[in-house]
Design brief:
The chain has a single domain, classed as TIM Barrel (Alpha-Beta Barrel). The protein has nine helices and nine strands. The protein is globular. It comes from Candidatus Taylorbacteria bacterium CG11_big_fil_rev_8_21_14_0_20_46_11. One of its GO terms (molecular function) is phosphoric diester hydrolase activity. One of its GO terms (biological process) is lipid metabolic process.
């Protein structure tokens, strides 16, 4: 259960539970389920042969020690690499197979071509109503919404852009995703008055989480969900 009393606040495990397991790996998503997270956030790129790959960076160096861009490598080559704890780089289909019916997904679109490929997988697996698509890239959100207007989409930002409220109606958005330090009471109230949900990310201390929950955010993204959930 939540450690705090704001019953509407959902806990989103960032890259699975990146504070406890190698990020964006099946083990990390397994732990998000075990901990009782409401959603698991992940990042996607496309491989050279068009597979949707769950990885944050556009190259494999940081997470595997290998060399190369994800977009220049086939799925077979990517599967030869290992993340920490000997974990493989998973595909989105593998993550869906693991999580379907157990936890909803929050998918961050990172690269050109991901909207169409992701939408195809969501439809194939019948989970379009149980996911949120997020991105810092407005064009990717526009494309996703045109492909499938039924999907929930959210715009991520580090600082509040002057064009924010215009984007809300233009795309249109269901979520806004400010970095935790950009959240104010006024922002939350304005978002709620427009029918939007607020997802605050980079929330990795109890104190910050408590503050954001008091401000009324709807979801918090964290590497350390055990700070906010107790069994």
């Amino acid at each position: 259960m939540l450690l705090y009393t704001h019953s509407m606040t959902k806990i989103v495990g960032h890259r699975g539970v990146a504070g406890y397991a190698p990020e964006n790996t099946l083990r990390s998503f397994e732990m998000a389920i075990e901990f009782g997270c409401d959603r698991a956030e992940l990042d996607v790129h496309l491989s050279k042969d068009g597979e949707v790959i769950v990885i944050h960076d556009d190259d494999v160096a940081r997470i595997t020690g290998g060399v190369g861009k994800v977009a220049d490598m086939t799925l077979a080559k990517l599967k030869e690499l290992r993340c920490p704890e000997y974990q493989e780089i998973p595909t989105l289909q593998e993550v869906i197979d693991l999580t379907k019916g157990k936890i909803s997904l929050q998918i961050e679109l990172k690269a050109k071509g991901t909207p169409e490929a992701v939408n195809r997988l969501l439809l194939k697996n019948g989970i379009e109503g149980d996911v949120v698509l997020i991105s810092f890239d407005v064009e990717l959100l526009r494309e996703m919404k045109k492909l499938n207007p039924r999907l929930q989409v959210g715009f991520l930002f580090d600082h509040i852009p002057e064009t924010l409220w215009g984007l809300v109606s233009e795309i249109p958005l269901e979520f806004i995703g400010p970095r935790s330090i950009a959240v104010t009471k006024e922002l939350v109230e304005e978002a709620h008055s427009r029918g939007l949900l607020v997802y605050a990310y980079h929330v990795d201390t109890k104190e910050l989480g408590e503050k954001l929950i008091t401000l009324g955010v709807d979801e918090i993204g964290t590497d350390f969900p055990k700070l906010f959930i107790t069994s």
